[in-house]
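forwarding from the other thread:

> can someone predict this with 5-bromanyl-1,3-benzothiazol-2-amine?

sure thing
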Amino acid sequence: MRFDILTLFPGLFRGVFEESIVRRAIDAGLVTIAIHNIRDYAPGKHRITDDAPYGGGGGMVMKVEPIAYALEAILGEDLPLRQKRTGLVEVPIVLLTPAGRLFSQAMAREFERYGRLVLICGRYEGVDERVSQLFATHEVSIGDYVLSGGEIAAMAIVEAVTRLVPGVLGDMRAIVEDSHSADLLEHPHYTRPPEFRGAKVPEVLLSGDHAEIARWRRREALRRTLERRPDLLEKASLSDQDRLWVEALRRGETPSQEGE
Ligand code: JA8
């Protein structure tokens, strides 16, 4: 998987990518990340990357030319415009913006399948609309809050996509488990000690009864999802047993076993 990141602040990425799963993926040769300083592509002696908005108002807007020249240097002269003309995306060009579609695990899977991703980090009050009009195949936000720039959003996307690259997570176990419980929040986790300041580890987890533990975890995942993210439950693929448990939880019951 190759990522190309366009930013006015390349230094922001170093620490994050040097100490994370991303670093391990790079070291293993599974991921390549190229960070491009937009300023290097800005024409003129002063290498200006932003300007005042047409129509007035405060703040600054990122100029289109430096981003256009950077994209053409990275991807070739033809590809960026051709993708928009034909609608056939070979390399997603993602503009990070608070006005973008919300990033999701499904989007991370989609991006991973391309094998290559270009991320444009906006700053200031925004980016000249012609970057979207002419080049961006996707506009994405990581949440309904406003950051000072797209860099932290780009880091989040790089990490989420990198985890999906085959081989990065090591064994298959995590992936198998992910696919089973992908639509739900995770069950609670515990490790030693069995009691801390009166707070005990649930007895079932110490029982050694693995079938019973699996049932408890599934029920707790459903309980948490119902309480915290009922929206996820709507789309989740639930077994008949799951539905019985959810109904019991909705009635305020604490089913002991098998949803009785
Ligand atoms: C922002 Br400025 C800027 C650029 C990109 C993003 S993505 C997000 N949630 N906020 C702010």
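The radius of gyration is 23 Å. thats all i got for now
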